[in-house]
Amino acid sequence: PELKPIQKESEVSLRFPDNFEKLSPPILQLDEVEFYYSPDQPLFSGLNLSADLESRICIVGENGAGKTTVLKLLMDELTPVSGVRQAHRNLKIGYFSQHHVDQLDLNVCAVELLLHKFPGRTEEEYRHQLGGYGITGELAVRPVASLSGGQKSRVAFAQMTMPSPNFYVLDEPTNHLDMETIEALAKALNKFKGGVILVSHDERLIRLVCKELWVCESGNVRRIDGGFDEYRDILQEQFKKEGYL
C-alpha cells in the first residue's frame, strides 16, 4: 500500500463561522448578582459584568475563586440567588470545556458524531465542518477513541461551532493542543465577528486574544481593560501559585 505522508497536527488552521446578523447591545450582563452553593459560604455578591460581540475577555483567578461559576452564571446554567442575568434574545452561546472532550462518544467516528448531533445534513457537509478543524480524510472516519487528545479537542470544536454561535465561552481550551494549534485558535478567535470569554492559563493565548481581564478574587470579579502585558505581574503571580509557571 502507498504510504500517505503523516499529517502533522501543526498544519491546522481553525475557522469559527460568523454568518450571523449583528446584535445591538446589551448582549449579555449580570446585574448585582449574588451567588452561593451554600448560604454559609457566599461566593459572589454585587457582581456586575457585561460583554458584547466585540468582547475578548479572559477570566483569571486562583483555583476555587469561582471562574467556572462565573461562566455558568453568564450561560444561565446556574441561577443567581439574587440579582439578574440579562441576555439578548438572539444570543447563541457555543461552550467548550474539557468535560465536552471527555464526553465525546468514543465508539463512533467524527462524521457520525456530527450526524447524531445535527441530523439531516449530507456527509459532505459534516466532512467540510470537520475539515475546518484539521480533521480530514480518514481521520474523520476513524473511531474517536483512536484520535489523539489534540484531535479530540478539534472534533469538540467542530461540534461546538456547527450551529454557528455568535458568542463563545471557552473553559481551558488549550489542554492537549500543540503550539501551532493554539496559535491557529488565537487567529480564529481574533477573526471571529462575535464575542469571546475564556478561562485560560495559556500565556500565549491570553497575549494573542485578550483585550480585557476579569480577575476573580475574594468574592468579586475585578474588570481590567487591556491585555496580558499590562497585567503580566498579576497573572504570573496567579499562575505561580497554581503551579503553572
TrEMBL record:
InterPro entries: AAA+_ATPase, ABC_transporter-like_ATP-bd, ABC_transporter-like_CS, ABCF, P-loop_NTPase
GO MF: ATP binding; ATP hydrolysis activity
Keyword annotations from UniProtKB, A to Z: ATP-binding, Nucleotide-binding, Repeat
Highest rank taxon of the organism: Eukaryota
PROSITE patterns to which the protein is assigned, alphabetical: ABC_TRANSPORTER_1, ABC_TRANSPORTER_2
Family: Belongs to the ABC transporter superfamily. ABCF family. EF3 subfamily.
Record-given protein name: ATP binding cassette subfamily F member 3
Protein's organism: Nothobranchius furzeri (Turquoise killifish)
Encoding gene, per UniProt annotation: abcf3
